[in-house]
Amino acid sequence: MRTKAETLLAQTDRRLLSGREYRGVSRIDGPLVYMRNTHAVGFGELVEILAPDGSRRSGQVLDTSDDAVVVQVFEGTDGLTLPGTGMRFMGEPLTLSVSEQMLGRVMNGLGKSRDGSGTVHGFAERDVNGEPINPTAREYPRDFIQTGISVIDGMTTLIQGQKLPIFSGNGMDHNQLAAQIARQAKVRGSSGDFCIVFAAMGVKYDVARFFIDSFEETGVTDNVALFLSLADDPSIERTITPKTALTLAEYLAFDKGKQVLVIMTDMTNYCESLREIGTMRGEIPSRKGYPGYLYSNLAELYERSGKISGRSGSITQLPILSMPNDDISHPVPDLTGYITEGQIVFERGMQARGIYPPINCLPSLSRLMKDGIGEGMTRGDHPHLANQLFASYSHVKDVQNLASVIGEEELTSLDQQYLEFGNFFEKKFVNQGFDEDRSIEQTLDLGWEALGKLPSEELQRLTDEEIAQYYGK
User: Which residues pair with 63 in a beta bridge?
Assistant: First the structure.
């Protein structure tokens, strides 16, 4: 009499190679491989795919049930056949071998060498899904990170342990800004080594080359771990790239005590890959065809930032996403804004006027800024100065709208002064060179120089002492 296992093998016409290894799949659809009649397989389990030519690829269980298992293949399914493909279920989640030696290396989305310098060696195996931080163990972010970018440091200050996304658009200068921040960023008011983990998803080769060359020319390569998933790589690899990058960041921050800044670009490409997989699986789509779990999926990534009580390291995230059609209400920026602590918004009109970085400070904000600036952190006048610059620039927009109706010649002398302030603010305060690294003191002094274009009576957000000390100096 046949055993149950022998009956299953006869029905599926395949051979059980070992306890967790099978030969022959039932369906291949894009980057997904389907296999029926397996043992009980865990969600997210690591899979080794055995190709007909003898090569091996890696994958992860995307869905599992009593009837079938769905595996996403990171290296793509080209060359795989239904009868000739085997699968070995490893019984453990996808892990990344991490070490400090990964700083200075260029890797693909799976953490494998891309720079031709040999195998990337790690000393600890970590689950790429990370371990959730106990909310009661989190420390409130308070330490200022100086990016050297005036409009960020002065108006939307980045705080250590914060997640502050950049909302950009296709063809805008977000790649240049990301490279500049990676070169210039430094922690003030906190101990510990500072390093960068940079993850690029779905970028073109020339963009990837730009990042590498930029880091090499400025001598910061040894302090940057670069994960690159190029546009011609399998799209499925983009879904794992931010996870591997954050896994290394967690090791460097919480095991080695480093202050880690994680820059991820472009999160829209990541979300597009999720939508592609959801469509292949036949899932019921949500807004604009994205899967209904997009919010929770993004939250799993963004919430891996922060500080843990009793540990000296921290993870700060600066995700960059391009808004399709510059629509800030698109699901990707919309959901990102709900999860993160603010946003930095690019304006296409400012880029057209030759302003770099083209950041519009009016829709931008940093919700943790108030706790990381002021006396003992940046400078005592910083909070009031930022409020005054914001209020004055907001009034500039009203004056510009009025001028478009009645003409600049009909404006009052005060309105003319506001236009002069707005022009100086954009051309001198916001605009700066790609290689220009400004200290926070230079930024604040430049802000006071801009306010010098206005009469002191208009500076109602500042104290008399601050005006006496800085105004007109």
Answer: 70
Characterize 318-355 residue by residue with b for buried, 16 or more Cβ atoms within 10 angstroms of its Cβ, and e for exposed.
bbbbbbeebeeebbbbebbbebbbbbbbbbeebbeeeb
- Identity of the amino acid at 64: T
How far lies 223's CA from each of 26, 215, 262, in Å? 46, 9, 12
Q: What is the pLDDT of residues 412-469, one digit of tens each?
A: 999 999 999 999 999 999 999 999 999 999 999 999 999 999 999 999 999 999 999 9
- CATH number for 28: 2.40.10.170
Residue located via tokens 């296409």: 348
pLDDT digits (tens, 9 = 90+) for 177-195: 988 998 898 886 554 588 9
CA–CA separation, 159 and 141 (whole Å): 6
The position carrying tokens 């190679």 is 17
Q: Which of 315, 337, 371 is a domain's end point?
A: 371
pTM of the model: 0.88
The b-or-e profile of 65-74 (16+ CB within 10 A means b, else e) is eeebbbbbbb
Question: Which residue range forms the structural domain that includes residue 440?
Answer: 382-470
More confident residue, 12 or 247: 247
